[in-house]
Amino acid sequence: MNAKRGFTLIELLVVIAIIAILAAMLLPALARAKARAQGVKCLNNVKQLQLAWQLYADDNGDVIVPSGGGTPTTNQTWCAGFFTATSTDNTNLDLIRNSLLWRYAGNTGIYKCPGDTTVNVRSMSENCAMNGDDTDLSQFTFFKKTSSVPSAPQYFVFIDESSTTIDNGHFRIDFNENYSAAIVRDNPAAYHGMSGNVSFVDGHAAPRRWHARPVTDMNPDGIWLMQHGSLPADGTVWSGPIIP
């Protein structure tokens, strides 16, 4: 009787090589599928926040829930707290629950993108021009009521912010009519490839593909944030074409 034949070393190495090749082909595809799934979930989160934002305005005489700057405490802005590397605010869900928008949101999960792997309980921020308090930007329009926004589909409200710049719930944009602000203080997140999600005053939300990391003042992303964040307070319009 012949003994059962086993694999030779060469055959075993060939099988291992085939498995490695298949893994190399499949893993990137799985990673892309995961990123797409997280992007869909993130988009839904932004839409839910935007709905809560509109419900707040409906209940408060059309007044936009304040974005606020500095280190807001509870019941002053849409979301309180200030994140730093050592702050306990980063993991404090009570700062969400005790802020102005919570009554309408009701779910702490929608405040964060699933692609953000930090301990932060929030990755979303509100456009600083939405009832913000940056007095040094008084030459630009700060919208107090939803009815004061001239083109609801154009101006953004919530944006997924990078964990490298997120602090309070206030997405600061250094508006400048020449697109040459001294510094971009806050950067949008790009947890889905080079994309993030943004909501708009009219209620819709959409993915936004960013051109570069980080965003700088003069690249298309910095200009887009300015053009879709506010407009000059003197009634003039932005110079050059509006980036869609």
Structural write-up:
There is one protein chain. The chain is of the alpha+beta class and 244 residues long. It has one domain (9-227). The protein contains four helices and five strands, in the order αααβββββα. A five-stranded mixed sheet has the order 3-1-2-4-5, covered by helices on one side. It starts with 8 loop residues before the first helix and ends in a 17-residue tail after the last helix.
Features:
244 residues, alpha+beta, 4 helices, 27% helix
Order of helices and strands: HHHEEEEEH
Overall number of domains = 1
Structural class: alpha+beta
* Helical residue percent band: 25-40%
Please state the average pLDDT score: 89
- Computed over alpha carbons, the radius of gyration is 23 Å
Order of strands across the biggest sheet? Answer: 3-1-2-4-5
* Number of E-type strands: 5
Strand content: 5-15%
Give the uncertain stretches in residue-range form: none
* Terminus-to-terminus distance: 78 Å
Largest sheet: 5 strands, mixed
Q: Report the total helices.
A: 4
> What sort of overall outline do the alpha carbons produce when their principal axes are compared?
elongated
